[in-house]
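The pair is listed for reference:
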Amino acid sequence: MYFPEVKSVVRYEGPRSKNPLAFKFYDSRRKVGGKTMEEHLRFSVAYWHTFKGTGADPFGGGVYDRPWNNGRDAMDIAEKTMDACFEFCTKLGVNYYCFHDRDIAPEGATIAETNRNLDRIVKRAAKWQRETGVKLLWGTANCFSHPRYTHGAATNPDPRVLAYAASQVRRAIDATVELGGRGYVFWGGREGYASLINTDLKHEREQMAAFLHMAVDYGRKAGFKGPFFIEPKPKEPSTHQYDFDSATCLGFLREFDLLDDFMLNLEANHATLATHSFEHEMVTASAAGKLGSLDINRGDQTVGWDTDQFPTDLYTATWAMYVVLQQGGLKGGLNFDAKVRRGSFDTVDLFHAHIGGMDTFARALVIADRLIKDKALAKPLADRYAGYRTGMGKKIMAGKATLPELEKWAMSQGEPPKTSGRVEALENILNEYLHGGR
């Protein structure tokens, strides 16, 4: 037992509860908009932060002493970590987890040994999944941490490095298929450049597209039926990432004929690093029909790196659920790509962090559902664009108007009246809902 301080499954006790190990707002069986909270939210625990995180930051190394890290060798530690993962998910009451290949199984001296390590741990994961009912949300490959990927993986100038990454991705897809993952993610940790002086940008982008096409072809032949996800990742660690934000990724996928097989897995902190808001990134992806899954966390506006803090901002969470509900849900889910603070040493802090994030999104779900049912924001928005639903406006949107025709119409209409955007009034409405009003 790795979490003896948590005696039983975390339960919903309501907003009046003083129990720090109870949900105040997340009631898995409560129905919102015809589905349970559990079905809407589909929470997932991130293997890399929750079980492999060390508390390291740009100014210091690891500080955590996790009991599952005490073992005879790397594989013994990997097995203990997997056991800890399923104990944690079961006690928290979360039905999904996510991993990178190198999170769950250590790299060996050769590709063959690495593959054997992964196969062994995947079998252990499959056994735990059968026994607990916990499932894999998505898998991915860590093609960025090892020194061989200093200059990238799919965009590396050496084809031998790309081939090594291809082996990793192949086996990670196999693991995802075997464990029944809902999706597979490409996290381009070093798919970018540090300087244009030594970079053939055109070649690298074409190279990355070729790699993704190979992965899709292999995945479909291997029986993977879910969506492939691209996770936009700006700035870190490269000066310029080819997967900078939602718009950049969508443009890339369209350009290289990959759009049909891919959706986006968006992270709140990555939106911050791209100088966007999380809601901007989500709306951009959703408008293209490509918002597939979310990594829920938050960044710190006062620092310049990926702090991956747990999501406790109700405003942003409500926007997230508002967008998700409007598009009818997600193919993936809500993955806690978040880590406890460096000074949060105790394993029970992992429970406190996840409980807080789950309660935040449960509240956000209820508020977003009310906003939609009341048309509190939708009606003013529709009214603002009402001119495009009739007459000349409708003709414009149908692509049937011409510039000379519009000029003639403008002359007949005279100077357009000024109309207020009513931003402050709408912000007040949203705040009223956030605080239990309306």
